[in-house]
Write a structure and sequence with these properties.
Blueprint: E1 15-18, H1 24-35, E2 39-44, H2 47-60, E3 66-70, H3 76-90, E4 95-98, H4 117-141, E5 147-152, H5 167-187, E6 192-199, H6 209-212, H7 215-220, H8 230-241, E7 252-255
Parallel strand pairs: 1-2, 1-4, 2-3, 4-5, 5-6, 6-7
Helix pairs in contact: 1-8, 3-4, 4-5
């Protein structure tokens, strides 16, 4: 519990896992935690890209401790292996940020063309993967005094974003939002807090080219009339990882510039 506002947002020395941390919002959060003095292990599928990012981070934060773990979060064995490796390297887990995810944008009828493989891929990664990483890390956390789990979901979990068709992604994110609430209630007795950040449209390096053309329309429907920046998600993640948010669990914090207010 905080007693002084000066150190309320301190995360220095905390051990943090960020899944999908080699680009986009994930990389923004990796930078935020390292800048605030936390120790960070991030996961990614693409080892070549991730190792380049790792080298850049070590140069940028020479006093920080950062590591990369190759992982496929739709696979249980891969999740187990990366968490075990993190614990071996860092000793304990204080914070898990479930950021890894993807979406298959298609008309719902289109999923039948490949026997629903795209639907299964999205749900396996964006929902089951979040659950597996949460359970695996919570099993470690409960024996070391608790921790904070932060799920990166989406405002698509509670509004119909348009005009793109994204039923698999939106369904997975809606499930992850409610999972956040369920796990928060279930794991409170272990000192494990579970919250979610639900972003809207953000300026990242992983926006598909076909969606770039939609940005003008998205901005027209966003009251603040701009895209979010990864550092803003990082700031919110720092809050949820710090003692300042110790009374917060089961919360789903929407950060979308007001887009969901009228959609």
């Amino acid at each position: 519990m905080i007693t002084n506002i000066k150190n309320a947002y301190d995360v220095a020395g905390k051990n943090v896992i960020v899944t999908g941390g080699s680009n986009g919002l994930g990389l923004g959060m990796v930078n935020a935690f390292l800048e605030m003095g936390a120790n960070v292990g991030f996961t990614a599928r693409n080892a070549e890209r991730a190792n380049k990012i790792l080298a850049e981070l070590k140069e940028k934060y020479p006093e920080g401790k950062v590591a990369f773990y190759q992982a496929d979060h739709s696979d249980c064995d891969s999740c187990e292996a990366c968490v075990a490796a993190f614990v071996k390297d860092f000793g304990k887990i204080d914070v898990l940020v479930n950021n890894a995810g993807a979406g298959a944008g298609t008309d719902a009828l289109g999923f039948r063309k490949n026997k629903f493989a795209d639907w299964k891929f999205t749900l396996d990664l964006d929902l089951t993967g979040v659950f597996m990483m949460s359970v695996i890390c919570a099993d470690y956390m409960k024996d070391t005094g608790g921790g904070s789990i932060i799920n990166i979901t989406s405002n698509a979990g509670f509004v119909v974003n348009k005009p793109q068709k994204m039923v698999s992604y939106s369904t997975a994110k809606a499930g992850a939002n409610h999972m956040t609430e369920m796990l928060a209630w279930e794991w409170a007795e272990y000192g494990i807090r579970v919250n979610a950040i639900a972003p809207g449209y953000f300026d990242t390096n992983i926006t598909p080219p076909e969606q770039m053309e939609l940005q003008k329309q998205w901005l027209e429907w966003t009251p603040v009339h701009r895209l979010g920046k990864p550092i803003e998600i990082g700031a919110l993640a720092i809050y949820l990882a710090s003692e300042a948010s110790e009374m917060m669990t089961g919360a789903i914090l929407c950060i979308d510039g007001g887009y969901s207010l009228a959609n």
